[in-house]
What does this fold into?
Amino acid sequence: LGFIRPSVSPWGAPVLFVKKKDGSMRMCIDYWDLNRLTVKNKYPLPRTEDLFDQLRGASVFSKIDLRSGYHQLKIREADVAKTAFLTRYGHYEFVVMPFGLSNAPAVFIDLMNRVFHTFLDQFVIVFIDDILVYSSSPEQHEEHLRTVLETLQREKLYAKFSKCEFWLDQVALLGHIVTSRGIEVDPNKIEAVRNWSKPRNATEVRNFLGLAAYYRRFIKGFSKIVLPLSRLTRKSMKFEWDSLKDYDCTINYHPGKANVVADALSRKRKGELTCMITQQHQLIHEFARMQLEVVKSPPKLPVVGGIRAMRMWPTLRDRIRRDQAFDKFVRSIGAKINAGGVEGFYRGTDGALEYKGRIIVPNVEALKKEILTEAHSEPYLAHPGSTNMYHDLKWSFWWKGMKRDVAEFVEKCLICQQVKAEHKVPSGLLQPLEIPQWKWEKLTMDFVTGLPMSAKRHDAVW
It folds into this structure.
């Protein structure tokens, strides 16, 4: 056929044969050494998603396959010697472009795009040596097909009739079946996935994932399904392959309210013991030297979670008692108590005014803020809501409008606004990202700015 000629080139690549779909043999040459030294042609191959998008609305198809398409391009005479290959019958070199060269696909698709440039994205799809003609009606398809065949004749590009298919209502293209109803996976490819042998190492896992990922658009939650296999491709991961073991699983339902600020107590019932144990060795030794009598008595205050509700420390109670003397409302209550008493109000043993066993907090903003902050922001309390916080405080403190002040304080808490569910839009289902075709094709960054200034002087997250 004039494709090869005897050679005296210093180059020489080994040869092997592979079977084609029609049963004939294709000669393949291992140009690994030549490709390693070749300056790569970065001509972009078309994206399969873009090709399939063009077929929307098409109902008639014809598929044309060129006869040994690569061999229809001549090689520059100065480069012919580089294509030399070795056989048991002698040393030969190609005068046309052979299969196996790293730049062959890019060169050939560049040629095809230039030949059919006028018709691309209208009624022709070209992928290397495959030409697909598509139309929305038989009449239109006849005109399109004549145009394509005349173009091939004019450019002296020859098709292999036995591999061409005309006037189809469905056509196989790039591992998919295209019809007027849409696109589906080629059943032969599904069988290939099903019959894939068990991978024995990370490289074989990557090969399988590459085939499976090609059809990810048809698989809901693909990234989640293949996650166990993806982990096996990590360098630090030990490769272990075993059958999935059966196991019994008991599911227990624990009733409770949603709690976004999760902690170890989020699902505990109110009556369960919750306490923090510390060892103060110095205090233990001090009490050991004392002669003390332990007397048990029922608590005057209710026990919540096995520990008493919030109690004041001495310095805070002293400050509250001292500031009571400067509050007009508290002084008026003290005068009524001195005059004969008023129901529910009385003086404590240290002289502080109380209401039903709770110390009366004077109208001092700094004092109220300190109490509210301590009751809301302590690490052990996990930022309670306004209702729970009010119930905790009301056993020890009282002031006019305390419930309203608690609600306003919780509503303005920055941490609660950032993490609690009632301040957030529902998340929805996670959606896998498409795998880019090229490096640096997609760059993403998540950031939020303009937030209220935090205690550490930060107002952005990224």
